[in-house]
Write a structure and sequence with these properties.
The protein is of the alpha/beta class. It has helices at residues 6-18, 36-51, 82-98, 111-123, 140-148, 178-192, 208-221, 240-255, 268-279, 298-306, 318-333, 350-353, 364-372, and strands at 2-3, 71-76, 101-106, 128-132, 152-156, 163-166, 169-174, 197-203, 227-234, 261-264, 289-292, 312-313, 348-349. The strands form 2 sheets. The protein has a 7-stranded mixed β-sheet, sandwiched between helices. The chain has a 6-stranded mixed β-sheet with strand order 3-2-4-5-7-6, sandwiched between helices. Helix 8 packs across helix 9.
């Protein structure tokens, strides 16, 4: 479902002018005035994020050896999200090394499904539960019940910030900094379009983390009045396969060539947008130029490298984060604090990915094995 943004965009643009973010001296007949100051700032952000690397291990090098005989349950918001699925796979892999019992439960992206998944997880009486890619007040009572029973919670994209959380009570939450991801994504559009873009944003407002990310992206886009947000497409991740193509077709009919760029809270939207764009005769490396503000799963990298309806992503080190989840649980079980590791924000394009299909630190498995004594 799209949301008209004319009034909100006008307010945001006015705010940007008052803050002095852009020069509105362009002739009034120009449909998209430039924004030299915002454009300069965006170009700097994009350059730095493109150069950021994790060529060496910057994560923890010390910690407790593996606590034996533990069990964890990974509650997935939906395994149709390839980023979530890859993290779940990595947790299973790390769990095998740790000698733990790992169970994955799919919440299928619905409130009822997540409540049922949580109920099943708690009934299993595990040592820990992973809250993956969601948190709503619907789960508050269940989480409190599990906390009272001594079950440890670790989040992955469960709340807006990395580190420990009190509401919900999480030992730690694993994510890059959403503010950085949102800024890089929006600044790439500003820079790539030279400050003149017509943007469609794809989001899932049922996930607070995703909604917050989108709000931050829109705020950054508003620093450049040459960027017009044409539509905000609110499509649940669990419905992306069935709805995205239809919505893209409507957007092409409604906006035509005004639609130059897209940003999505997850790369998977472009998996389902690509066939419709192809059928409409759009070139894979043409407009709209698409950027994913997470997660950087292998299919997204393949689209980027092949220049097929996605130009960039701001990836997470998904496999490393699965191992980090197990490491954080182990620290909790050993009575130690979280590691505090947060990966740097990065921008991947065909120009700098060098054919890679993921963005993970080198030798992270070996580093965690050293810590664990495995």
């Amino acid at each position: 479902m799209s949301r008209p943004v004319g009034t909100a965009a006008a307010i945001a643009i006015a705010a940007a002018i008052l803050l002095g973010g852009c020069d509105r001296s362009t002739h009034s007949s120009s449909p998209r005035p430039g924004c030299p100051a915002a454009l300069t700032n965006a170009a700097g952000t994009v350059k730095l994020a493109s150069q950021n690397s994790i060529s060496t291990w910057r994560g923890p090098t010390t910690g407790p050896t593996i606590q034996p005989g533990r069990s964890i349950v990974f509650v997935a918001e939906t395994l149709s999200n390839p980023g979530v699925a890859q993290v779940a796979e990595s947790v299973e892999e790390a769990g095998r090394v740790a000698g733990w019992n790992v169970k994955v439960i799919d919440g299928h992206g619905t409130a009822a499904g997540l409540l049922a998944a949580f109920g099943e997880a708690i009934a299993a009486k595990p040592s820990g539960i992973v809250v993956s890619a969601f948190y709503t007040n619907l789960n508050a009572a269940q989480i409190k019940k599990a906390n009272d029973a001594g079950i440890v919670f670790v989040g992955w994209h469960a709340v807006g910030n990395p580190g420990p959380s009190n509401n919900p009570k999480l030992f730690t939450n694993i994510t890059t900094k959403v503010e950085d991801v949102a800024k890089v994504s929006a600044d790439w559009i500003i820079s790539h379009s030279e400050g003149k873009a017509g943007v469609v944003a794809f989001t899932d407002s049922s996930i607070p983390f995703a909604k917050h990310k989108t709000d931050l992206i829109l705020k950054e886009l508003a620093t450049c009045p040459g960027v017009e947000v044409l539509s905000i497409e609110d499509i649940a991740i669990s419905d992306a396969e069935t709805r995205t193509g239809r919505e893209v077709s409507n957007l092409l009919s409604q906006h035509g060539d005004k639609w130059t760029h897209s940003v999505a809270i997850n790369d998977l939207y472009f998996t389902y947008a690509a066939p419709t764009l192809r059928a409409a005769g759009r070139e894979g490396d043409g407009e709209p130029a698409n950027i994913g503000a997470g997660d950087g799963d292998p299919s997204a990298f393949r689209r980027i490298n092949d220049k097929r309806y996605q130009a960039a992503t701001v990836p997470e080190p998904l496999m490393q984060q699965g191992w980090q989840i197990v490491d954080e649980f182990n620290r909790a079980f050993a009575g130690q604090p979280p590691s505090g590791y947060v990966p740097p924000v990065h921008l991947s394009t065909a120009a700098n990915s060098e054919g890679a299909t993921s963005w993970d630190p080198p030798n992270f498995r070996e580093e965690y094995r050293k810590i664990w004594g495995k």
